């Protein structure tokens, strides 16, 4: 095809609500006025991302509840939420995404904690033409290197994060005359991508020995 922060539950609810509004205008609606809108939510509920994933789920549930009190999408399509635990593993993420699409008939999948899982799910959503909103995983590779017309990122990507960090640290390095820099990060997609971008920016802004 060519074409992984903690927030309060109220803030997450607002953000997800905005995502759902975007979904409304992105996909066709069922013919029947009262037909439910099936929405998938896939996160890492088991493992290191469990706490944030649980908060995301609670925020999404609040947003769905608020929208359904008003009649659902466009006031006439109640949202039915389907939740999956991908354990932060790409192969399980692919399996669960396919199950959401083929068995539960979801029209969109919101979520993914791990960028590696997000990249894997992106391929599935591209294949089945299902909207994909990676609400936490944010590797630049997902929307730049491997662009899909069905995937829309709603958080700063690794390029943006690394740039902001480099600007701040370069300023400190010049003020304090720092000459040596060490980076420490996890060995997976998000950290690798962020570190590469950060080092590239630092070479331009404040060259140091590493």
Structural features, described:
The chain is elongated. Strands 2-1-3-4 form a four-stranded parallel sheet, sandwiched between helices. It has helices at residues 9-24, 50-69, 90-102, 115-128, 158-176, 189-205, and strands at residues 37-43, 79-85, 108-111, 131-133. It has two domains: 9-155, Rossmann fold, CATH 3.40.50; 159-205. The chain contains six helices and four strands; from the N terminus they run αβαβαβαβαα. The model is unreliable at 2-14 (pLDDT under 50). Helix 4 links the parallel strand 3 (108-111) and strand 4. The relative contact order is 0.14. The protein is α/β, with parallel strands linked by helices and 210 residues long. Helices cover 47% and strands 10% of the residues.
Q: What is this structure's SSE topology?
A:
Layout: H1 9-24, E1 37-43, H2 50-69, E2 79-85, H3 90-102, E3 108-111, H4 115-128, E4 131-133, H5 158-176, H6 189-205
Helix pairs in contact: 1-2, 3-4, 5-6
Second-tier CATH architecture of the largest domain: 3-Layer(aba) Sandwich
Q: Number of DSSP strands?
A: 4
The main β sheet shows up as: 4 strands, parallel
Regions with little confidence, pLDDT below 50 for 5+ residues: 2-14
Rg, alpha carbons = 19 Å
Overall number of domains: 2
* SS element count, helices: 6
Mean pLDDT over all positions: 82
What descriptors fit this protein?
6 helices, disordered N terminus, 2 domains, alpha/beta
Brief sketch in words of this structure:
With 210 residues, the chain is of the alpha/beta class. The chain has helices at 9-24, 50-69, 90-102, 115-128, 158-176, 189-205; strands at 37-43, 79-85, 108-111, 131-133. The chain has two domains: 9-155, Rossmann fold; 159-205.
């Amino acid at each position: 095809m060519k074409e992984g922060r903690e927030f309060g539950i109220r803030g997450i609810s607002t953000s997800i609500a905005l995502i759902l509004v975007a979904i409304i205008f992105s996909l066709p609606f069922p013919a029947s006025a009262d037909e439910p809108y099936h929405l998938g939510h896939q996160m890492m509920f088991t493992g290191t991302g469990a706490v944030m994933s649980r908060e995301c789920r609670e925020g999404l549930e609040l947003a769905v509840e608020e929208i359904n009190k008003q009649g659902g999408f466009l006031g006439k399509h109640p949202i039915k939420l389907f939740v999956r635990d991908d354990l932060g593993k790409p192969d399980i993420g692919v399996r669960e995404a396919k199950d959401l699409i083929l068995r539960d008939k979801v029209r969109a999948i919101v979520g993914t904690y791990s960028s590696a899982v997000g990249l894997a799910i992106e391929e599935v959503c591209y294949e089945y033409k299902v909207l994909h909103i990676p609400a936490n995983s944010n590797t630049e590779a997902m929307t730049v290197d491997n662009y899909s017309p069905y995937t829309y990122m709603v958080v700063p990507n690794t390029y943006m994060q690394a740039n902001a960090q480099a600007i701040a640290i370069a300023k400190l390095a010049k003020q304090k005359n720092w000459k040596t820099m060490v980076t420490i990060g996890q060995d997976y997609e998000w950290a690798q991508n962020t570190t590469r971008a950060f080092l590239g920016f630092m070479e331009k802004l404040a060259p140091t020995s590493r």
